[in-house]
């Protein structure tokens, strides 16, 4: 078995006597609450010295995926989704054969004019 250096078995290479204070866990911070359209609250922490302009007004709520704002009484509105359209709804929107033929003729004349074959 080959060993090298002065690493002790079971230790990570590069680990040192760093405590939580060295990682920044005890830095002064402020808590900012955000609410989404369903009334869910999430709290984000920012550095205490951060100017108020740099704290975002809206974020994406991590659990619901909806936009969330800092104003509890007026959260961002929920996205309005279009209702699912059935096949029959698409069939009703189709053009008649006469309208389709007219559109095709218009498109062909425009194409011929561009090519100079009028």
TrEMBL record:
Residue ranges of the region described as Disordered: 1-23, 55-83
InterPro entries: RbpA_sf, RNApol-bd_RbpA
Keywords assigned by UniProt, alphabetized: Transcription, Transcription regulation
A biological process term (GO) from this entry: positive regulation of DNA-templated transcription
Extent of Basic and acidic residues compositional bias: 69-83
GO MF, any single term: bacterial-type RNA polymerase core enzyme binding
Top-rank lineage group of the source organism: Bacteria
Function (record text): Binds to RNA polymerase (RNAP), stimulating transcription from principal, but not alternative sigma factor promoters.
Family of the protein in this entry: Belongs to the RNA polymerase-binding protein RbpA family.
UniProt subunit comment: Forms a complex with the RNAP catalytic core and with free principal sigma factors.
Protein name, entry field: RNA polymerase-binding protein RbpA
Species of origin: Microbacterium tenebrionis
Lineage summary: Bacteria, Bacillati, Actinomycetota, Actinomycetes, Micrococcales
